[in-house]
């Protein structure tokens, strides 16, 4: 194997997992060289992008072990041919790791807290031989502290910048996870989503994000907003990379027993890579939801409507049946989100309290402590500039409560009589939505979605196209998203490069 990385031997920038694994096997690249490349890229670009909060001091030693394991019989030892052996992964800073890295959700209030163990998804990553490169920046507390902080801002990490247009907000809250992948600071990353937190930043960063069916991936060891709605999902520069990562992190976790046990029924035998088909659009029935969002595009200079229509034509040309002018019951109420906001207010305090109770050591032990910490450390936590109104509203809640029960009932009704009915009555395989605008439709019902790069606006800011489906529809969504990606190939790296 090489002792020094030779850029003429293999180009790391924009390389896929499959290409990297091939380079490993051909002795054109080592895991250690790959990790060093990303560490150098982070050192160079992170002062501008602020997309990485902390790098893993053990990353290079993990990579060296992966290199050693690769030449031994049995490879990584996981027995799965998973493709993640020796691949660096960045984690949103609300996903716990039992190592030298902190897990803070971007707040100094959780700095030096001690988690009892790795998060469930990290257990799976380590067994697959992946390298934990570090923690990515995010909207602090997954965008659930207050209402006026910019997307991607956290006290620990500063404000994450969009790598395509630095002055444009990059979306939240898995902001650093999306931006780091877009800017080639890592191969793939993990984000979390409660409502649009993977889908939005991926749309704005020209990368692929998968929001899985609720429970398909474990939430144990993840700083929560709502266990009724939170999900962990993969982010990659290509659909295939995101799917490779998805294959590793799905599955049952006894520490997230009820949700992951129920979702296991959806995991296909042989995993998800088998659905990476270039003819995946053929015969699919797609619900074109443009008409219910078009009011947003009153600006005649926006390229989104024309680009979206071209893509619809591309889907038709590749064999899809596109159904137009569908009605989504309760659309305005779903998008308004009042019932969701009410439910989250109760769930945040309850579920965060459970997370705190499992910590072995922590500067704070309750939501009330977090509020007090922010006030006492207003300069560090910027409470003199950005409010903590959601914290305060949540702290005032008490369960059980009839108001909360009524909100849950209404959310179930909105999903069943809205998106579920739309899909069922029209025999749809997926809905198609411009940008990240359909995220709220998917959020409350625990439905999956995949966002794929679809174009750039007049300023050069990327935007994606969202495919969403019913629970367990990941195989169809992957077929659709991959075929669309291969037919269009919109992805290009930002000009801010290593």
UniProtKB/TrEMBL annotation:
Domain Amidase: 34-477
UniProt xrefs under InterPro entries: Amidase_dom (IPR023631), AS_sf (IPR036928)
Listed Pfam families: Amidase (PF01425)
Superkingdom of this protein's organism: Eukaryota
Protein name: Amidase domain-containing protein
